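Data card: per-record layout.
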Amino acid sequence: MGCRSWGPWVALTWLLAACVFFGLSPGAHGITCRRCRIEEPGSRCFPATTYCRVDHGGCLAERQYKDGKLLKRIKDCYINGTRCETSWTTQEDEIEHEVRCCTDRDYCNKTL
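The structure for this 112-residue chain is written out next.
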């Protein structure tokens, strides 16, 4: 193997190293989401400034209402998207749940 044949391999090695360094490796499908267990109107997210990362899923945002008034928001990661874009009302306490999901960019559930 001569010196000329090393040229493409060295370039490919550097390209792969750069992709891994910047998180662009083939097969990397992860997304980072805002995590907020409870966020009531007029108050901050609890626990404050937390995030989650999921490789095969997306970001979720749930809103809960009672009598048309927003009670709280919940933000998290999801793996199984069966709850995405759904809404239902629990019969016991008559709380309406509205769930939305996104996968288009990191922290996409921050403003949902």
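Known properties of this structure: The chain has one domain: 29-110. The chain has a mean pLDDT of 83.

See the next section for split statistics.
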